[in-house]
Design goal:
Length: 276
């Protein structure tokens, strides 16, 4: 299969693959340079469960056509074909580093990609030939990029990794100052669909009472949790203020996204970022 140019990605966006929209930058000359750095030096994309036109799927409805998770019971050959299709969209000589995500707080720095998944829930790189991938099906994908376009990170933001300081752990390993990073928060299960027990809320409140704003109590003693709000609070407290979000709910939009909470037998989307 021939490589698709970066420009050619536009023909498949809004279906199988969508471009990440970085934070809006004001019109000062300095910030315009930052915007150009992100446009010219960083490629970031979010997949959906919708089949690319180029792919035919014989997967059952649980996985549909563009599942990228090898660990969910789908046909291995089909998943590998989907991953190969995705890799063909990337710049020449760029390969994807997949992770074995365990809802922990380990962060790995990728200097050279491996064909084997690395056990971690976040990854960083300064290598132009390395694409970082996070898989989700309700958890929050988080991307970070240097304003200079020379360092990137991808974070699996489930509630457990967020509670275990996965964002802070990632920033510690990055060379870019926190204030010089921009962030993107992708689609995940929304506050209107994510019911959790009081123990989940307490984990965050013990860290700081400001997390109260991310939880709404219910009459049954449980809470509705807002992963976007939790991540926003953490990022801002760490000095990252240039943040954009794609606040689409995976649970409510399960025709577009995979949702593990709605359908435990389901596929995985991928959020990818690489340096150009």
């Amino acid at each position: 299969m021939a490589k698709t140019s970066i420009k050619g990605l536009a023909s498949i966006t809004n279906s199988a693959v969508e471009f990440v929209q970085w934070p809006s930058i004001s019109t000062t000359s300095e910030k315009l340079n930052i915007k150009q750095n992100l446009i010219n030096k960083v490629l970031a994309i979010q997949t959906t469960r919708i089949a690319p036109d180029a792919l035919f799927s014989d997967s059952n409805q649980a996985y549909q056509a563009f599942n990228l998770g090898l660990h969910v019971g789908d046909c291995v050959k089909k998943v590998e074909e989907n991953r190969q299709y995705l890799s063909e969209l990337l710049p020449d000589n760029t390969s994807i580093q997949w992770l074995e995500q365990v809802h922990g707080n380990d962060v790995v720095e990728i200097c050279q990609t491996s064909a084997h998944a690395i056990t971690a829930d976040a990854a960083i790189t300064r290598n132009k030939n390395t694409c970082l991938a996070i898989m989700t099906a309700d958890c929050l994908p988080i991307l970070l990029a240097s304003q200079h376009g020379d360092e990137i990170a991808a974070i699996h933001g489930g509630w457990r990794p967020l509670a275990a300081n996965i964002i802070d752990n990632t920033l510690v390993k990055m060379k870019t100052k926190n204030s010089d990073l921009v962030a993107w928060l992708g689609p995940c299960i929304s506050k209107g669909a994510f019911e959790v027990g009081s123990e989940v809320k307490e984990v965050f409140i013990e860290k700081n009472k400001c997390f109260n704003s991310a939880f709404t109590s219910k009459s049954n003693g449980k809470y509705m949790a807002d992963l976007h709000q939790i991540a926003l609070i953490q990022l801002e407290r760490l000095g990252i203020t240039q943040i954009s979000t794609l606040p689409e709910c995976t649970y409510s939009n399960s025709n577009k996204y995979y949702s593990y909470r709605k359908n435990p037998i389901t596929g995985r989307m991928a959020t990818l970022i690489c340096l150009l």
